[in-house]
Amino acid sequence: MKAKILFFILLLLLVTALLQADKVDETYKKMTKAYAELTSWQAVINQTNHFAQTKTKLSSSGRFYYKKNQIVIRYSKPNEQVLLIKGGKMTMFDKSSNAVVKSELVSAVQTLNPVEIIKLYWDKSNRSIKKSTDANTSIVLNLNNDSQIKDISFTLENKTGLITSFLYTDKQGNTVSMNFTEMKVNKYIPETVWKLVVPKDAIVYER
Question: In terms of DSSP bridges, do strands 99-104 and 203-206 run parallel, antiparallel, or are they unpaired?
Fold first, then answer.
């Protein structure tokens, strides 16, 4: 009798694991399909950077704009900043210090593109559902052998396949989290949004 009970418990666990794996793959396919079909995506972004070594947090908010191979984040709080990511390069302008930082991107994580980061690490991770409701599904990617990232988690709208939140933790315990609200897909974005206008007297730092 005990052997039969144990067998059915193991069978139930196996079936549950298979069903969860199907749900995880289904969610991933929905996300990649949704972003492959759009031409632009914009949202209000609330971002928090936690620095483990100094035990400090930096919270920022603004607007996030995305189109193929290009991202612009225009922060309004705590300082007015513009972050432009294009062509493998990052340019950040901080209005309060009148300073510009330019650098080459050496990691996909630096793009702050949740979709591309998830796609890059998907096959390199152990994937599981953190939470699932009728409206949203949250997934965790655990990476054991990556030199930079420890884990990634994100939440998708089941109806649209769009990402509403994204968080990653690096090997040092630092985290970056982003929450997206007021999302708009394939809506008009003025050309001025994609242009980074820097004052002539701005201090420029090259990395």
Answer: parallel
